[in-house]
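Running this now, will post back.
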Amino acid sequence: MKFTIERASLLRSLGHVQSVVERRNTIPILNNVLMNTGKGSLRLTATDMEIAIAETVPAETGANSAITAPAHTFYEIVRKLPDGAQVEVESSDGDSQITVRSGRYTSQLACLPPADFPALGDEDLPTRFTVPADAVRALIDHTRFAISTEETRYYLNGIYLHASKRDGTPVLRAVATDGHRLARFDVPLPKGAADMPGVIVPRKMVNEWRKLIDETDTDVEVALSDAKIRITFDDVTLTSKLIDGTFPDYERVIPKGNERIMDVPRKAFSDAVDRVSTISTEKSRAVKLAIRNGLVTLSATSLDQGSAEEQVEVDYAGEDMDVGFNSRYLLDIAGQIQGEKAQFRMGEATSAAIVGDSEDANALYVLMPMRV
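Update: finished.
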């Protein structure tokens, strides 16, 4: 095998595929990237057996052939080469070694036979639809912060993607929750998605998907079944197993009768939460909101550090109310709200609050209170 490729093109694609490779692997071949040469192209493939990525990039190639290379080491070598360099890769000693050359630089890397690389299944994925890249970015950005990291509740370790309706309008909906907060976001339902199964896309797939589409404005083709999802755009294909579990009935935790409405200036409120919570050394970083007519006083107290408070003017005409929230959760939600104001819809101080975006009805967040 032999190919020559411009350093920037190889680095970009290697950066994508090596991200999937786990740093600690008990199966040696999974530390490697598979490289296949075709007519004028190089195809890079990596997998951890749960998620797989393949990307095709132009290159000067000879006959069709395949080789593997240690993904992270190969990536670091290419990353440290100078801009504009040409990279030549050639296999030697059968499948056991590759030579990397660029200018006066040469290295030999031990590798494993391509025949050892796991075959990636090409199962039939019956549900297929296309989503604009900006809609995918919005779905992920507005929800992934609420994905649970508690491994025992594995069915919460991803984003629940499904077809739904809001006010009678069909939508593609993403939901994530960790039991303390819930994030929900809608985009128009794409053609072909109406009969899709509700699927839980795992955290790693969500993060890789988001990184990849940061570089494109093209539409994303989505194909899925009950067990697997595949996304394709440009020259990239990303495939992942889905979480085999039942996502909870999230509609039950969205309160229906919250009649205390408070509109807050998003940036001023977020900055105040950030400043006040600095005093707290507790993991929860609880912040108390003392809500009075037209004013909210945010305060935090720490046995070790002291106390802090700040007042923010708000639109509120309900009964006086004291409620506490996790400051980090408040900041996460505020960071996703695009409008100038965030709207809190509250019931009792001990019940969940709904937070919305004044300029985007597609977003909805639910936040459980804390004792303060």
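The mean pLDDT is 93. More later if anyone needs it.
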